[in-house]
């Protein structure tokens, strides 16, 4: 694994998902607690911050009236119905635990759907940085992580999913995606395994 | 938005719905399985748990996390493991009742139902049947207790019944004993009374006979002197002398007197025997001469030993021991025993004619043999044997039973030998046995201790 062409993409680390008072916290709470998503991700970033690896976050925002969503279905309809991720609200802000790394993380705005490549210049950024390997973390496993992962795979990126840094709606869903869906196009590994793979290279 | 991005999002939405349905379905079945009171499990090829529901912890106390990967067999008690191994080996799907070890160490009975899959994995359920087994055990115990109590009660009832039966027998025996004793007592009193009443007048007769003999002898001498000095008396005297047959009287009178003397002696002897036999005043144990008791009894029975139209006289053979000591006993009771046995012996001989008895043929009447001996200086043995027809073995076993008799109704109470047995065994601590065989006669053997134990 080459640190210079690898990027860690953080998706959905926002208060409406991960804060205890977040509007959609209940959706991922069980899985997030089970896999200790935030703690593992923070520990990983603490190590990666010292390396040249590119760390990107792609938060999702909507205007107050959700004008971006036309006849939404599924999770996006739910987002609109419950009033989640409205810009300039606490819910849409990045979680507090990531603030210390604010300078180290490149925020890519514009994500308004499931796929972080849609309506953003993520692909351009990755291309410019010569990134070939995209490592995914965040929420929700079955939606944004999977959609973005498949899109990256289709765009020719080598995709890794960090099994202990993602949150699903249920533990069952989490295990199902890690064991049955992600292996179809990505490499699944834990944050600790990622660090083990990076350490020898960091030393060189 | 590019087309493939739209497709991507559509696929995500489809997956979202699918996973939602799948999750809901999985949740529903998981909740169903988790809500079961029975343990539901799945094991791999090695018999190790790969799935357990909550009931596992609720019933056996182990956490699911620590139990997954462990073998089902590890939780079964040693005593039941062979049963489980056998079922596993044969892949039998019959329900098994096995004992499991609870996390606290206690034992639980679980009913195991398993189903083997094609790949030799198996799933199953474990149902806690401890309470049922406990109830069964209690029921079994209760049944056993009940059975035991019934057996015990039946035994007690049987014992009580036996006691009652024995008591009834004893009562009947006592009743017979009392009747017989009363009869014997009355008979004894009668005998004693008669003997006493006869004793006084016979004493006068017996005592005066000697004087009469002297007087008669003197008178005869005087008559003979008259005859010598007055050979020709007056005619009137000669007529009277001729009429009374004086010469015959003078010759016969001493013989008559001698005969009267013998008769008087015999009456005295019988009276003495009667008084000795009854011995009413001897209710206590006394040292007595057994031979005298036998002789007294024989004297009383003498008339029955004499010849009769049916048979000649019965010969009594006495083989008495010379060194027999006095024996401590209830003399009256023992005489009663001798009387019973001797009377039976005479009756046995009476029952058969001379032609029936080889011993009698050419030998006159039957025989009764009396033998006495001393054994170890401690016991006196008295044998009374007759030459009668003998007693069949079936009858022999019953002769000492109360009320047993072979005689016609009214002829015998059937208590004679029963009371004799009781007198010898219980009142004297002795033995009374009967030996008999067909055509060889019967022998009764009494053994009495020379000295009676204190009390």
How would you describe the overall organization of this protein?
The complex is a heterodimer of chains A (204) and B (455). By secondary structure, chain A is α/β, with parallel strands linked by helices. Chain A has helices at residues 15-18, 25-35, 37-48, 74-82, 122-128, 141-154, 171-181, 191-203; strands spanning 6-11, 54-57, 106-107, 133-139, 158-167, 187-189. Chain A has a single domain (3-203), classed as 3-Layer(aba) Sandwich (Rossmann fold), CATH 3.40.50.850. Chain A has 8 helices and 6 strands. The longest helix of chain A is centred in the C-terminal third of the chain and has 14 residues, at 141-154. Chain A is globular and about 45 Å long. The longest helix of chain B is centred in the middle third of the chain and has 100 residues, at 130-229. The mean pLDDT of chain B is 85. Chain B folds into 3 domains: 36-132, Beta-Lactamase; 175-280; 282-455, 2-Layer Sandwich (Heat Shock Protein 90), CATH 3.30.565. Chain B is rod-shaped, with a radius of gyration of 53 Å. Chain B has 455 residues and is of the alpha+beta class. Chain B has helices spanning 3-35, 55-60, 64-67, 78-90, 130-229, 235-244, 246-278, 290-300, 302-305, 331-350, 393-396, 416-427; strands at residues 39-43, 49-52, 96-101, 107-116, 122-128, 286-288, 315-319, 327-329, 367-375, 379-386, 431-436, 442-449. Helix content of chain B is 55%, strand content 16%. The interface between A and B is medium-sized, with 23 and 17 residues.
